[in-house]
């Protein structure tokens, strides 16, 4: 299913505005409900402004014999993103001023854009430069660059609490695989897996944005709400390639998002590396900016800038696989299960150990015990010993080298017997009582 979706989405000419974004969101919306929201050109978002809307019908360069040397319809990376309309004949020297190549990757078409300065240009494989020998060339860019709208996508799943998990990806790059489509594909499969569940504690918000300008716009309108409600968030990008995982921390570095991601990666047994937050990257730059400092990291595979095909036509279908995409979906779902299960408890029996056997929580008879019984005894005794209202399930699980989500059942059993009290639930009940009074 993932690669079928990929094949439908890959040819679409996406940019920070335009019909390509709308079509992409419509296709992804077949898997999970995505609301499209439109914001007009000129909308101010902090220091930025939503630009004109850009759409392209055709673009090409022909030589003096009428042969097509560059064709947007063959690969949309051939046209510089946001190229203004142009029709005319140009000299070879003038064409070369508007022609972009990547000498270190002579077989690659580079990805070049000019969002905020009106210009035009084409991109071509460096090895093909010797083909441009004529004195004059016909250049046609049949595009619209005019007042319109920027489109963002948003999905939402309501849980039982007022706390929120944020997942954000971007839908503004044309035909590239790792650094674009892997993110929206994985995020949509996570959304699809969660959308019908009735047992979720957290609310889940899924954002599909044009990179940078989209997150700035969303923050300008909803930033205070996110600060008030988000417990953890992740930017989903570059998730379709590589054996290992990469986790980029939030700017704060010690948030629930960071703790849960590192805990799940450690327990997974998969190879991974950790990257400290830095201002090079994706929308975590905006979410973690000083005005918001949201608990947002990014769980990736091979990250942007760390593979040679980055931002070129060589970042294509051959680099990603259904298996790697699905493994990433599964890792995110394990992370979500950990966040869902995680709670902080306080032990209510503080004078010595409680007598567990009279509560059915410890065998009356000694002797041989099954591995399952031994594990449950370890979980139960550690929960009682370490539940001090400060350490959560992940902290206690770490003392046993277990996954935090695997402690949930033992903790709920102790709550049922009155030996643990959920700090969050108690706080919510006190808050509710205060409101009633």
UniProtKB/TrEMBL annotation:
Residues 344-421 form the UCP01524 winged helix-turn-helix domain. Residues 4-342 form the DUF4910 domain. It holds the Pfam family DUF4910. InterPro entries: DUF2172, DUF4910, UCP015244, UCP01524_HTH, WH-like_DNA-bd_sf. Residues 53-143 form the DUF2172 domain. This is DUF4910 domain-containing protein. It comes from Cohnella candidum. The lineage of its organism: Bacteria, Bacillati, Bacillota, Bacilli, Bacillales.
């Amino acid at each position: 299913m993932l690669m079928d979706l990929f094949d439908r989405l890959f040819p679409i000419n996406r940019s920070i505005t335009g019909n390509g974004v709308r079509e992409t969101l419509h296709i992804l919306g077949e898997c999970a409900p995505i609301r499209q929201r439109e914001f007009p050109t000129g909308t101010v978002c902090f220091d930025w402004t939503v630009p004109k809307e850009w759409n392209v019908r055709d673009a090409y360069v022909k030589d003096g014999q009428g042969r097509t040397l560059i064709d947007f319809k063959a690969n949309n990376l051939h046209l510089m993103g946001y190229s203004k309309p142009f029709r005319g004949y140009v000299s070879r020297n003038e064409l070369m001023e508007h022609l972009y190549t990547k000498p270190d990757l002579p077989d690659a078409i580079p990805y070049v854009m000019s969002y905020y300065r009106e210009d035009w240009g084409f991109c071509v494989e460096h090895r093909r430069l010797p083909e441009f020998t004529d004195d004059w060339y016909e250049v046609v860019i049949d595009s619209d660059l005019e007042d319109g709208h920027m489109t963002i996508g948003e999905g939402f799943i309501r849980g039982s609490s007022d706390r929120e998990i944020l997942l954000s990806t971007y839908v503004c790059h044309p035909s590239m695989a790792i650094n674009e489509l892997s993110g929206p594909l994985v995020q949509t499969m996570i959304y699809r897996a969660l959308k019908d569940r009735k047992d979720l504690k957290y609310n889940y918000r899924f954002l599909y944005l044009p990179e940078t300008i989209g997150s700035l716009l969303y923050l300008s309108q909803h930033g205070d709400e996110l600060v008030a409600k988000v417990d953890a968030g992740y930017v989903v990008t570059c998730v379709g390639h590589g054996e290992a995982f990469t986790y980029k921390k939030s700017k704060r570095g010690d948030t629930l998002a960071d703790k849960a991601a590192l805990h799940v990666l450690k327990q997974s047994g998969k190879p991974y590396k950790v990257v400290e937050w830095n201002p090079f990257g994706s929308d975590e730059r905006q979410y973690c900016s000083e005005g918001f400092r949201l608990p947002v990291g990014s769980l990736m595979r091979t990250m942007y800038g760390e593979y040679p095909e980055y931002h070129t036509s060589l970042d294509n279908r051959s680099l990603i696989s259904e298996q790697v995409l699905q493994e990433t979906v599964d890792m995110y779902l394990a992370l979500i299960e950990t966040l869902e299960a995680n709670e902080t408890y306080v032990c209510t029996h503080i004078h010595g150990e409680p007598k567990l056997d009279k509560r059915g929580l410890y065998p009356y008879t000694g002797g041989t015990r099954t591995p399952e019984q031994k594990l449950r005894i370890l979980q139960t005794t550690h929960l009682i010993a370490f539940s001090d209202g400060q350490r959560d399930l992940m902290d206690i699980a770490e003392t046993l080298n277990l996954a935090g989500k695997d402690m949930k059942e033992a903790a709920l059993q102790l709550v049922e017997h009155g030996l643990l009290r959920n700090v969050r639930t108690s706080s919510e009940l006190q808050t509710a009582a205060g409101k009633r009074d």
